[in-house]
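Write out the 3D structure for:
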Amino acid sequence: MSNDIDISVVIGFRNWGQRRLQLAVKSILDSFGELEGEVIVSDYGSDDGQVTQSGIEDVGARYIYTKTDGTWSRSRALNAGFAHAKGKILVSTDADMIFSPKSFEIIGRTLLEDPSLCLLLQCRDLPPEWGDKEVSEAGFNWDVFSAVSRLRPRWGMGGMMAVHRDVYTRIRGLDERMHTYGGEDIDFATRAKRAGQRLLWVEDPHVRMYHMWHQPTRALVEVAQEAREAIEYNKNIVYKDATFVRNTSAWAFPLQDAPPLVSVAIATHNRAEYLKQSINSVLGQTMQDFEIIIVDDGSTDGTKSIVESFGDSRIRYFRQEQSGVAAARNYAADMSRGMYTAVHDDDDLMTPWRLQAQLDVIHAGLHGSFGAFVNFDNSTGAMHLYRGKALNPGTIDETGGAPGHGTWLVETEILRRLRYDESLSSGVDNNLALRMVRSGFKFVHCGEILMLRRLHNGQITVTDEHSQKLAARQTRQVFSFGITDWGSKKMKEERGAADWTEIRNADNLASLIPFLPDHLVDRSLDLPQFVLKDLGPHHIRFVENNELIGSLLPSRKITAAELALLTPTGDSLGVVASLKSEISSLGTSHLVTPEETLRRYLISLSHKALSNDVPDNSACIIFEDSDNASIDSEKDELNFVETVSIDLHGTRKSYSLYLDPGQVAWGKYISSANFVVYSITTLGKLNFPEESTLTGSIEGKA
């Protein structure tokens, strides 16, 4: 980011005293010295009125407010602040900490000179006679604070962490799964270390952090069973999640200038007919933090227009004079902004979980991952699984081959440094894999089917099969050169079951049918599904804060492109599919009206609400265009579930769902002229005031 801010310090809080915050801000601003610094106070959902925006801005800080559901998360609060930060150095701290003069000048300069560090600062607790009231009245008496304070254990709660902006971006901030209390600092620092940073506890007499005394909050929080469970949940993340890149499925508060995490690299030449399907499969990933780099190697078939038809800013198109696939892939590596590159071919299809599954297995010491793939016949849809062996010196010496190239996820910098060999016409992947392994880079099998590889007459493996096999033999010969007979024997003895990874869905390839191309598959939706796209005025559209946030895809036959709209939300469970070469039970396509689509969707929400841990005789009531404030949920023992706001033919409507655990309230509302009850749904018998055996749903007031 181009700016003059050297260091940004973020304070996250909820329902905290303004005086305490003002003292923290003043001490930080006084400690920047000659550096250009800013303080951001991130208010994560305060509702007690203690802190005002003007009160924070008056002492020189920026105030950021985030509306929440009431759940406290220090990770999200800090990330929400960092999302607005402009500094080259990013620092997190708490609302009850004050810092001695020069603290952040020294911290900032240290990191600007050596970005490989992650700086931590040990907290010094002030005694009860030094709360924020006393500090405010007496001023910052640093010599006194030094004399009366007590060092807190290094891995205590709260404190300060400082990293270069690039490091924060690389590991995607603090883990936003963590909530309520505990573990955020330890987790972030541990992840920074796994990512290659050196942890350094600042030991400088001019750098001091003091905690202003107040009644302990953790002891109060831990009284509740729910809070204790949350703390245990956070501990499990800290001690059991070995990854260092987090918030991959959803980063709620990204840095404004954060590059994509993954660059999907596609080299193409005259395959426009397949390229569109290939791109659609990428857009349908459950992990959406990516860009797509298309390098057109001198195509003459309208490839550029196919790419431009998507109108997606994440797709970046580059053209070169025809120079070969190796040169095109090198060009893609040079243009990529992602920390990782996912190799993808222009005629193949990704499974929706590919990128997420590959990121989930990368931990300290690994430089990428790969997986299994399925070959499918482009005429019949017949599929065959290729599991993929481990990638190590022994497996390369044994066969000369490498895991399926189209399943690779590799640190982009490795591709830039080692590069594909442009003197080769085939086997460039095997050659690069050999050089990566000999350079000491390590990769892991993720245990998933990542690619649907199309078999057709235009493939390199078909048109240049001889060169492919020759390249594999040459790779093995090059790799084996210099290896002694003893070394070769030793590697052969180490081969065995450990080279193979168990593959999810290996015995259920039929589960992949929905993701095959349209000409091979009939697929349909069992139930309407929400998609994060405006499908136009002829569809039901969802509204939030007067803005369109998505649409409802009706239950009908759908295309692969429409399926790709569903898979990013993880809502593709209602898809039924079969090969056209087999007997299809899907029937013919039929038009479903928007009103019928809405009805099916709302009833599905009712069933979802009733599928949670609720009493067997519960009912779900849906109110249409009702004022929730007029529903006496406390008196009638109703539990609010959610409100859905939609746009139907240009008319705004809202539907509110409530659970009636004992079926004691619905009769009151359905008989009242003041409420419009859209439906009442039960999973069993609906208890009328008079005896009845009716089950299921009542729609309207009929």
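Residues 690-696 have pLDDT under 50 and may be disordered.
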